[in-house]
Amino acid sequence: MSTDHVKDPKPIRLVFELARADHPRLYDELIQFHKGTKRVNRLRVLAYDGLLAQSGVFAEMGRGSPHLPSASSAQEGNGDITNDLFAPAIDA
Amino acid sequence: MELIVRAVDVGSGNTKFVTAAAGTDIRCASFPSVAYPSSDDSPSWPASERKKTVCIPIGPLFYEVGPDVSLAADTFRAKQLHDEYTETPEYMALLRGALSMMKVSHIDLLVVGLPVALFAVKKAALEKAMTGRHGIGGGKVVTVGKAMAVAQPQGALAHFASEHQKMAIIGNEQSLIIDPGSRTFDWLVARGMRLVQKQSYSFNRGMSDVLRLLAAEITKDIGSPYRDYDAIDLALRTGKQPMIFQKPYDMKRLLPLAETVAEQAVSTMKEWIEAPHSLQNIILVGGGAFLFRKAVKAAFPKHRIHEVKEPMFANVRGFQLAGQNYARSSMAATGKERAQGVSGEIE
C-alpha cells in the first residue's frame, strides 16, 4: 500500500448488481431489506464480519468457552460402528 | 419415545457430564472432583449466598459437590486419588451431583468411564452400582435403567472419529489414544473402536505428579512448605508466574523437570505398543495434553499427532455419542431396559 492511500484515503464507491444465482444465501439475506440505506448497512455488516472471521477474530473469541457444542460437521455414526466401544476387549 | 441417554466422566481432577444432547450437538459441563463431607444437608455458607453446589446424601453423611465447592471445601482432604476411588462415597457423590445437574428424573442409559488399568476389574461392579435409584438430596431421586462402563480414552476415540468425519473408516483402522489426566496417564490401543487390552494401560503419572514434584522443588527453594498446586498448574498452562511471598516466582528452571515426568510416562507407554508403524491415528486428549505434547511428538516423530477441541470433554462427548447409537440400535427395539419410572424434567 502506498503512503498516499494511508494519508489521504479516498472513499470507495461501489455500484454493482447482485443476481440470486451469484450468491443465493447473500441475496436472500439482502432482499429482506427494502432498497436503500438499510440494505447497504446490512451488506456492510456482513462484509465486515466476514473480514473478521477470515482474520480469525471470531475463532479466538470462541476458544475460551468450555461448553461449546460439537461442530455441526461432526458425524453421528451408528450402532454398527460405535457399539464396539461396549464389546469385550481384544486380548491378542 | 426417544430414550434418554446421558454420560458422566468422573475424573480425578474434574467431573464432566452431559447436560443436553441432540445428535452431535452435545452440551457438557464440569465441576471439580471434590466432595466436601458434612453431617447435615445444609451448605457450608449462609442461605443468603447462592452458590452452585448440591448436598448429596451417601450413607450417614452428606457430600457437598458442584462448581463452587472450592469456596467451601477443604480440598486437601476431600480428593480421592487412589485406585479404589470408584468405590468411595466421594465418587458416588460426584456422580450423583452430576446426575442432579442434568435435570432429568430418569435416564434410560448412563455411560460412565474408568481408567484403562481398572477397566477389566471394576467394570461389572461399577455398572451394577450405577444402575437403579440415586438419591440426589431434597427427597429427589434419579433412576438409571441401564449403565455401561467403558475405558475413558475410548470416548475420546469416538469423539475424534465424529469430529474428523472418520466414522465410516475408523472400524478398519488402528488408533492410539493418549490421555494424560489429573492422576493417571492412560493410553489405549484400539482396533476399530475395540480396546486391545494387552497394549493398553494406565498408571499413576498424571498432572498431579507433576504438580507435586514442582511444589516439592519450590518448597526446597523457598524454605517453606508450598502446596498451591492450582497456582503451579495455572503457571504451566499460561506461562504466568505464580506469586510467592508477594513476588512473582520464576518457574522456568523447573520446566525441564516437569517435562521429564511426561517423557518418562510416554517412554513407558512406548514399551507396550507392539507395532507403532501400524497406527493410523494417534490422538492426544486430556487435561494434561499441553504438557505431554512435546514428549509424544518426540516419541512418534513420523506420525501426525491429532488433538481435539476442548480435550477435557472429549471422553464424555464420545461416551454420549456411543450411548445414543447403542440406545437406538440395541435398546429401542426391545424396550427391555426401559425402567418403570416416568422420564421428565426435575424442577
Automatic annotation (TrEMBL), chain A:
Q: Where is this region: Disordered?
A: 64-92
The highest taxon in the source lineage is: Bacteria
Q: Per its record, how is this protein called by name? A: Uncharacterized protein
What organism is this sequence from?
Candidatus Accumulibacter appositus
UniProtKB/TrEMBL annotation, chain B:
Taxonomic superkingdom: Bacteria
InterPro entries in the cross-refs: ALP_N, ATPase_NBD, MreB-like_C, PRTRC_protein-D
All copies of the Actin homologue MreB-like C-terminal domain together span 177-297
Outline the extent of the Actin-like protein N-terminal domain.
7-155
Tell me what this protein is called.
PRTRC system protein D
